[in-house]
Design goal:
Layout: H1 2-39, H2 43-63, H3 74-97, H4 100-108, H5 110-121, H6 128-147, H7 153-180, H8 184-199, H9 203-206, H10 221-247, H11 250-271, H12 278-311
Length: 313
Amino acid sequence: MATRLTDLLGDTRIITGLLVNLFSSICIVFINKWIYVHYGFPNMTLTLVHFVVTWLGLYVCQKMDIFAPKSLRPSKVILLALSFCGFVAFTNLSLQNNTIGTYQLAKAMTTPVIIVIQTVYYRKTFSTKIKLTLVPITLGVILNSYYDVRFNLMGMVFATLGVLVTSLYQVWVGAKQHELQVNSMQLLYYQAPMSSAFLLPLLPFFEPLTGEGGIFGPWSLQALAMVLLSGLIAFLVNLSIYWIIGNTSAVTYNMFGHFKFCITLLGGYVLFQDPLSLNQGLGIACTLVGILSYTHFKLAEQEEGKSRLAQRP
C-alpha cells in the first residue's frame, strides 16, 4: 500500500511538472504576442524584465535549497551572458514582427544550425539519417515563409538572427556546463544578472524613455500586470524545463516538446486569426515530420550507445 501511494505521488508530481511546463511554454508565447499587439510595450524592456524576474526567482530557489549556487569567474560566462541577451531579444523581436506560425517554424531551424556549428567548429560527426532529417525541416520552414501572406523582411531578419544566436547559445551552454561542472540553474543564476547589466545601458539608445510606447510611458495597470505576468511565466518556463529533464527521460521531454509545438501553432491561428494557406499547412506538416524523425533517430542512437557501453566487460 505504501509503495503504491509513493508511486502515485511520484506520477502526480511528474504530471504536475509537465502541465506547468505545457502551460508556461505556451502562455509565454501568447502573452508576449498579446503585449506587443495590444499594448505596444517596448521589446528590449520586456526582455530586461524577464532577466530580472528570472534572477529573483532563482535567488528565492537557492534560498529554499532547490539548488546550490556555485562561484564562477565572470570572465568564464561573459560571452554566454551576451549571447543570452541576443537570444532572448531577437526571439522576442521575431515574435513581435511575425505570425506565431512563422515564429514557431523559424525556431525549428535551430536544430540544423546547431548541427552545422558542431560539424564545422567542433568537428562533431552526425549520421546520414540525422542529416537527412534536416531536409524536411528546412523545406517546411521555406514553404511556410514563402506563402505567409503577412511575410515581412524585417521579421525574417529578426527570425534569422534569433536562430543564429540561439544556436550559438545552446552550443555554448552545453560546453560551459561541461567545462565548469555546473547545471543549468547554477549557470542561469550567474547569467541572468550579467545579461541584465549588459542590456540596461542600451535601452535609452534603442527605445524611447517617455511618451507613447516609451519605457516610462503612460502604461495602464493592466499593461504593467501583463508584463509582470510575462516575467513570472518566463521564469516558470526555465524552472519547469530544468525539473522535467531531471525527473523524466529525454523521450518524455522531446515528445512533450512536439505536443507544445502543435498547440502553440493552433493557438496562434485561433487567438490572433493568423491566416493559414494550404501550402503553409504543408510546410508545417513537412517541418513536423522532420522534427519527429530527428528526435526518433537521435534517441535511438543514444539508446544504442548506452547498450554498447553496458555490454563492455
